[in-house]
Amino acid sequence: MLSIAEASSEAHVGSEVSVRGWVYRIRSSGGVTFIVIRDSTGIVQCTAKKNELTPEQYDEISSLGIESSLSLIGTMKKEPRSPTGYEISIHKFTVYQKNDVFPITKDQGEEFLLDNRHLWLRSREFTSILKVRSTIFRSFADFFYDQGYYQVHTPFMVSTAVEGGSTLFKVDFFGEPIFLNQSAQFYLETMIYSLEKVFTIAPSFRAEKSRTRRHLTEYWHAEAEVAWIDNREMMDVEENMIYYIIQRVIEENYDDLKLLGRDPEALRAMKPPFPRVKYSDIIKVANEIGMQLKYGDDLGADEERQITMRYCKPVFVTNYPKELKPFYMPQDPDNPSEVLNHDLLAPEGYGEIIGGSQRIWDYKELMQRIREAGLDESAYYWYIDLRKYGSVPHSGFGLGMDRLAMWIMHLDNIREAIPYPRTIRRTKP
Amino acid sequence: MLSIAEASSEAHVGSEVSVRGWVYRIRSSGGVTFIVIRDSTGIVQCTAKKNELTPEQYDEISSLGIESSLSLIGTMKKEPRSPTGYEISIHKFTVYQKNDVFPITKDQGEEFLLDNRHLWLRSREFTSILKVRSTIFRSFADFFYDQGYYQVHTPFMVSTAVEGGSTLFKVDFFGEPIFLNQSAQFYLETMIYSLEKVFTIAPSFRAEKSRTRRHLTEYWHAEAEVAWIDNREMMDVEENMIYYIIQRVIEENYDDLKLLGRDPEALRAMKPPFPRVKYSDIIKVANEIGMQLKYGDDLGADEERQITMRYCKPVFVTNYPKELKPFYMPQDPDNPSEVLNHDLLAPEGYGEIIGGSQRIWDYKELMQRIREAGLDESAYYWYIDLRKYGSVPHSGFGLGMDRLAMWIMHLDNIREAIPYPRTIRRTKP
Ligand SMILES: [Mg+2]
Ligand SMILES: [Mg+2]
Question: Is Nucleotide-binding there in the keyword field (chains A, B)?
Answer without folding.
Answer: yes
